[in-house]
Design a protein that fits this description.
Radius of gyration: 66 Å
Number of strands: 55
Number of helices: 12
Structural class: alpha+beta
Largest sheet: 4 strands, mixed
Distance between the termini: 156 Å
Helix content: 10-25%
């Protein structure tokens, strides 16, 4: 450390050493010499001045220094042009114990590209003291050992070189031994003890000596080892090596298990004292023990590891030979193994400079990387060739000193290929040739050369009317093949007018994600669709943009109830309609017409009878709104009927409106026909009708009183049969009349009809006498045959109950007459003569003739 401080203060030594490179500077090479262990930032040399470079252009021309070593020990100050220490250099770590330690550098400058070779000689500094591998050495020496016997000792190791390595040994003062050293080129050799005075085990059985090793540094450094000598008796002959040094040459690819050499030592003693065993000396380094094995009995040295010429081209093996007798003395045989080189190392590609990113508009021959090719096999270094795998827009340009420049060839397009994995293959000229490859990843940076594009040529969006303000209508999307900010998109609405208002007052768009929002609540009845033009712009420089048309369709919502257009009430809230009492079934009372401002299913209307004073009188066509009569009006029907028509649309939820119609009946002015005209066509019946009626009325008045009492007792049992007959013809005839009126007519299943319009003349009417007589009996009987809830026909057993009301009290005669009446009805019904219903399974299958039915009941009475 004192030396280093003195060195840093004495710059004259450095300036003197710099002069060494002047002889080679004309060839572009510079050589510096510096001591090791210089502090970081220490000055090495003014490389800019030595190379004749302008300091002001160093940064602009990208001047830099690259080391062949993996570590960057030196750096350049681009402001001053000085070469400085970047990392403290340990010569022993860098070059081990080599006599010469040179750090190879390349100074690279671009624009134009030029490379200089720099050699930095690392001078040794005495920063290590000699060290013995073992601090204590035990020797056993026979007392019969002759004077002058040499006892080799272990050598000290000093990582320093030159004068700083081990130069001398010193032995502590004693009476028996002196120290000798085998000098080797000015350096201390192997220390040896020489016996100068006979040993006497009885007087001095043990000796302790101190061996000190000194280096040649200033100041000197030293290391010590203790030597303990045990004096033994007898065995007075030591083995003798047949050769003191064995010279062996092997190739670095020599297979494991190969016999390298056999060391032989001879001992003149006999028995165990002459039986020699071999072993590596104590100071044999570990790398030798890992690469070689020694047979202790035969002295054969075998290769068990790998020898690498590039790691070490020479091995010094010290073999100890020692007999097996007591107090044996060891001798040492030296084996020098020289390793020859073979082509076992592929070329090595070293990146001196590289650019991982190039713009896609880079011009041809743009430099991407500078490579230096080396080969640890020295004879092949200058014969390495490199190529690029695959057809890509790059090429290699060879330059001096095994340098290659990777440049672009043609145009590159990031949208087609965004990155290139360039594989460079280098092959040497050995036999067989070896090759290596290196992949370089080059990213192509983006240039804003693509306008954004929408994913669709146009967009169609739907929104239901009465939407909430701020509701999302949909979104547009676009993409840009560029990257980074060149692909950052922003959406906007292009201003246009809609109904003399800017379109931006109706909708807005999220500039980031393209989501479109409604700024107003739309009404389908006012606007059904409109167009919006959306613009997308990237963030490049200059920015690029594209437009797209968005069709916004407003969908209908069922928000309008049907409006009744006709008929409209003149005064009040109800419509007044008048129809004749004689109106036939299927008579058109009125036609309700309604409209709906909605569309589609929301505007599809249906009509239905919502409320009626008598639902058996009217029906409504569901699709047309026509109101039809279902049956004839009777004297019992009210002169004024209230009808409520419900108009409903098909929306969800459905909306409806109602119309109230008051239907009034008016009597016809037509003359009331005689009872004869209603029951027959013969003249005698017409002229004598009043006479017969008076007789019949007087006769039947008493019978009716009895019949009513008797009927109350028999009503549950007797009404089923009569209802069967009367219900069947009334329902069927009514149905025929309605079907003729309208195919859209809805028929109520609960209405009743007593007469067929085809069988009775239109001028047929019932006078009060007929109502009191015939229809009292006939209608009461018919009413008992109809289920007022379902409108279905019941059993025909009430036919017997009607007959039971006659004045005939003879039960047998009554039964006979009843049987005849049923048989006659069945026969006539089956033949269709009178249209009387046929009783089959309690049902009538033939339409009855009401006139014939009146005649039958009259006779029964």
């Amino acid at each position: 450390m004192v030396f280093l401080l003195n060195y840093r203060e004495s710059q004259w030594l450095v300036h003197y050493l710099i002069l060494i490179y002047l002889s080679d500077s004309g060839h572009g090479n510079i050589r510096y010499s510096i001591p090791e262990e210089l502090e970081v930032g220490a000055f090495v040399g003014d490389i800019a001045e030595d190379l004749g470079l302008d300091v002001r252009q160093l940064s602009e021309r990208m001047f830099r220094v690259a080391s062949e070593n993996k570590r960057q020990y030196l750096t350049v100050n681009l402001k001053t042009g000085a070469l400085l220490i970047n990392e403290k250099i340990d010569r022993e770590q860098l070059c081990e114990q080599g006599l010469s330690c040179v750090l190879m550098l390349e100074a690279v400058i671009e624009n134009p590209l030029k490379i200089y070779r720099i050699e930095v000689d690392i001078l040794d500094v005495n920063d290590n003291a000699p060290v013995f591998q073992r601090k204590e050495v035990n020797l056993e020496i026979s007392e019969l050992t002759p004077l002058g016997t040499i006892l080799p000792l272990q050598s000290a190791v000093d990582p320093d070189t030159g004068t700083n390595s081990v130069r001398s040994y010193q032995l502590s003062p004693n009476q028996h031994f002196t120290l000798k050293s085998q000098a080797d080129g000015g350096q201390a050799g192997i220390p040896e003890l020489e016996l100068q005075r006979n040993l006497d085990r009885e007087q001095e059985p043990n000796l302790e000596l101190t061996l000190t090793a000194f280096d040649g540094g200033n100041p000197k450094k030293f290391g010590t080892a203790q030597i303990k000598i045990t004096v033994s008796d007898v065995n007075d002959n030591a083995p003798v090596c047949e050769q003191s040094i064995y010279h062996i040459t092997i190739a670095e690819n020599t297979p494991k298990g190969t016999l390298i050499v056999k060391v032989t030592a001879v001992d003149r003693d006999e028995g165990l004292n002459g039986d020699v065993i071999y072993s590596f000396s104590d100071h044999t380094p570990d790398n030798i023990r890992e690469a070689f094995t020694l047979d202790k009995a035969t002295g054969e040295i075998t290769l068990t590891g790998i020898v690498d010429f590039e790691e070490s081209d020479r091995y010094h093996i010290s073999v100890q030979a020692k007999d097996r007798g007591p107090y044996s003395v060891a001798v040492y045989c030296n084996v020098l193994v020289t390793v020859t080189d073979i082509n076992d190392n592929p070329p090595e590609i070293i990146m001196t400079t590289t650019s991982s990113t190039i713009p896609e508009n880079a011009s041809p021959d743009t430099a991407v990387a500078v490579l230096r090719i080396t080969d640890r096999d020295s004879q092949n270094t200058a014969e390495v060739s490199c190529i690029i795998r695959r057809d890509i827009p790059f090429k290699l340009i060879s330059s001096a000193n095994n340098y290659y420049t990777l440049v672009t060839q043609g145009l590159v397009d990031r949208e087609m290929v965004s990155e290139y994995n360039i594989t460079i293959i280098c092959k040497d000229a050995g036999s067989p040739p070896l090759s290596t490859s290196k992949a370089i990843n080059v990213q192509v940076s983006d240039v804003n050369d693509n306008a954004p594009r929408f994913t669709q040529p146009s967009f169609t969006m739907h929104i239901t009317e009465n939407n909430a303000i701020g509701a999302s209508i949909g979104s547009v999307s676009a993409f840009d093949p560029d990257s980074n900010q060149n692909a950052e998109l922003s959406y906007s609405i292009l201003e246009s007018l809609m109904d003399n208002w800017p379109v931006s007052t109706f909708i807005s768009i999220n500039a980031v994600n393209g989501v479109i929002f409604a700024r107003q609540s739309f009404d389908f009845e006012k606007i059904t669709r409109f167009e919006v033009h959306v613009k997308v712009t990237d963030a490049g420089s200059p920015p690029l943009s594209s437009n797209v048309t968005v069709n916004v369709i407003v969908m209908d919502q069922n928000d309008n109830a049907p409006v009744i257009a006709s008929p409209l009430p003149v005064e009040g809230t109800a419509v007044e309609e008048t129809i004749p009492r004689s109106a036939d079934p299927g008579y058109l009372v009125a036609k309700v017409t309604a409209t709906d401002a909605d569309s589609g299913a929301n505007a599809k209307l249906s009509y239905q009878l919502h409320l009626s004073s008598d639902k058996s009188l009217f029906t409504v066509a569901q699709e047309t709104g026509e109101i039809w009569t279902i049956r004839h009006f009777t004297h019992k029907d009210s002169l004024r009927t209230k009808i409520v028509i419900l108009v409903r649309d098909n929306g969800k939820p459905s909306l409806s409106s109602t119309l109230t119609i008051n239907v009034s009946l008016r009597d016809d002015s037509i003359e009331i026909v005689s009872n004869t005209g209603g029951l027959g066509t013969t003249e005698p019946w017409k002229s004598d009708l009043k006479f017969y009626l008076m007789i019949l009325f007087g006769t039947t008045s008493f019978v009716l009183l009895l019949a009513i009492v008797f009927l109350g007792m028999k009503v549950c049992r007797g009404r089923n049969e009569v209802i069967k007959v009367f219900c069947c013809f009334s329902r069927r005839n009514s149905l025929h009349g309605i079907q003729r009126a309208s195919v859209n007519l809805q028929i109520s299943p609960k209405y009743t009809q007593s007469y067929d319009n085809e069988n009775l003349p239109q001028q047929f009417r019932y006078d009060p006498i007929m109502n009191d007589l015939l229809f009292l009996k006939l209608h009461d009987s018919a009413a008992s045959m109809i289920d007022v809830k379902t409108g279905a026909c019941v059993a025909a057993e009430h036919e017997k109950e009607l007959i039971s009301r006659s004045k005939d009290t003879d039960y047998k005669a009554y039964n006979n007459r009843q049987r005849d009446l049923e048989q006659s009805s069945i026969e006539r019904c089956s033949s269709g003569q009178y249209g009387i219903g046929l009783y089959t399974s309690d049902k009538c299958e033939v339409e009855p003739d009401p006139r014939r039915l009146v005649e039958i009941h009259s006779r029964a009475l």
